[in-house]
Amino acid sequence: MMPSIREQVMDLQLRYAHAIDEDALEQWPGFFTEACRYRVIPRENHARGLPACLIDCTGQAMLKDRVASLRSANIYNIHFDRHLMSPPLVEAGSEPHTATARTQFLVLQSDQSGVSKLFATGVYLDVIELGTGSPRFRERTVVLDTYGVPELLATPL
């Protein structure tokens, strides 16, 4: 039996979060189409239609570069992420073989000393290509509830 569109979307989102939470960042770009867009934007800018984002990547190659720089060039606090997400609100996309999803999330971070704290809250606004293969994000807009995050935004949300 073919999984429903909602089940496919939930599976994609859970695999995405699991890859980040398990520090399998090299898998992260594979959750996106080649010609994708990944952005992290504060709620205020998103609501006003302002383009300023904290992160704005276009294309899977930019996502791969981001992972490569995280692994070899960037210096950031060593931490462990834990994603918690609501069930997605899934609707048919505006194009054939696409769906849109709206999913609330929060990300907790634990440092090496064992301190866990709330890192980010917001909503994922996704456009997902369904097609014949595995579903992939065409667009993932991460709308943060606040303008800032308590630490450096290094790993993907």
TrEMBL record:
Task: Provide the alphabetized UniProt keywords.
Answer: Dioxygenase, Oxidoreductase
Domain SnoaL-like, by residue range, is: 6-141
Give the GO molecular function terms: dioxygenase activity
- Taxonomic superkingdom: Bacteria
> What is the protein name given in its UniProt record?
3-phenylpropionate/cinnamic acid dioxygenase small subunit
